[in-house]
Amino acid sequence: MATEFEKHSTFHKYWLLMRPHTLTASVVPVLVGTATAKLFLLGSEDHLRFSLFLAMLVACLLIQAATNMFNEYYDFKKGLDDHESVGIGGAIVRNGMTPEHVLRLALIFYVIAALLGLYLAIQTSFWLIPVGLLCMAVGYLYTGGPFPISWTPLGELFSGVFMGMIIIVIAFYIQTGNLQNYAFWISIPIVITIGLINMANNIRDRVKDKQSGRRTLPILLGKRGSLIFMAACYILAYLFVIYTALFKDGGSLFYLLALLSFPLPIKVYRRFKKNDTPQTMMPAMAAAGKTNTFFGVLYALGIYISTLLGGV
């Protein structure tokens, strides 16, 4: 009988290690930040620079993939992952990679991301260097170091702010050369949807996490409280888009395209409510990732369409 190691091709093992279903959480903020930059470039002679967009996108993908690898490495080292664990890449416990190889690969990804960050800084501002280093440090400290962020109730906040708001603002800045309050404002729904991907993961893993000594937000709130909190946050994200589209200066009715994704968070809530084991809650976890993807892409598309029509 073939083992998991034998079943997967080499490429597939590395692909799973990066946890590809999570990577849109890096793509969406870059799209939203760049679309918002386009809005502020209307009427000027400046245009979006595709080279900066591409460098930013690849750097963000590498940092997130490396963060997932750090997670794989440290959770294995702390005895949290085994061959029955769900929602992980499984490179170490199922696909035969050594922990050292996973850690080495994560560091290589960080080096490449740092070089791309240096290119962005040369093209725009060297202030990006300390900001980029801070983001990379948070990515490592999320599961690494003596006090991992993922072991605290602040995981959702850190992931939402650093992967949502900070990436959107940087993507905006490298195109426009300045900071605008609107870029921070426009990022808030994405902060919420990305933070809720993290919360979905913590709801699924709360029993095992509690046994290991973690104090995540779902452990503190319990499953029922976590679902109430999650539902309230999703509603807030959609209401925020509606308010921005209808009442905020610079808003557009096209932002309401994001509302087309509303059936997805309903699926997240219902699937979590119906199921209570890590394996059966995987569809709910997947729906949370899809919610961020479809919400974010539609949101970015609405912003971009509004720029084509002069910011109507």
From TrEMBL:
**Subcellular location(s) of the protein:** Cell membrane; Membrane
Q: Which CDD domains match?
A: PT_UbiA_UBIAD1
Chief location category: membrane
GO term, biological process aspect, one: vitamin K biosynthetic process
GO CC annotations, alphabetized = plasma membrane
Q: Where does this protein act, in terms of pathway? A: Quinol/quinone metabolism; menaquinone biosynthesis; menaquinol from 1,4-dihydroxy-2-naphthoate: step 1/2
Supply the InterPro entries for this chain. Answer: MenA (IPR004657), UbiA_prenyltransferase (IPR000537), UbiA_sf (IPR044878), UBIAD1 (IPR026046)
An MF annotation (GO) of this entry: 1,4-dihydroxy-2-naphthoate polyprenyltransferase activity
The residue ranges crossing the membrane are 21-42, 48-70, 102-121, 127-145, 157-176, 182-203, 224-246, 252-270, 291-309
Q: Name one Pfam family in it.
A: UbiA
Q: Which reactions fall under this protein's catalytic activity?
A: an all-trans-polyprenyl diphosphate + 1,4-dihydroxy-2-naphthoate + H(+) = a 2-demethylmenaquinol + CO2 + diphosphate
Entry EC no(s):
2.5.1.74
Q: How does it sit in the membrane?
A: Multi-pass membrane protein
Alphabetic keyword roster: Cell membrane, Membrane, Menaquinone biosynthesis, Transferase, Transmembrane, Transmembrane helix
The organism's superkingdom is given as Bacteria
**What family does this chain come from, according to its entry?**
Belongs to the MenA family. Type 1 subfamily.
What the protein does comes down to: Conversion of 1,4-dihydroxy-2-naphthoate (DHNA) to demethylmenaquinone (DMK).
> Known NCBIfam families for this protein?
menA (TIGR00751), PRK06080.1-1 (NF004749), PRK06080.1-5 (NF004753)
- The name on file for this protein is 1,4-dihydroxy-2-naphthoate octaprenyltransferase
Organism expressing this protein natively: Staphylococcus coagulans
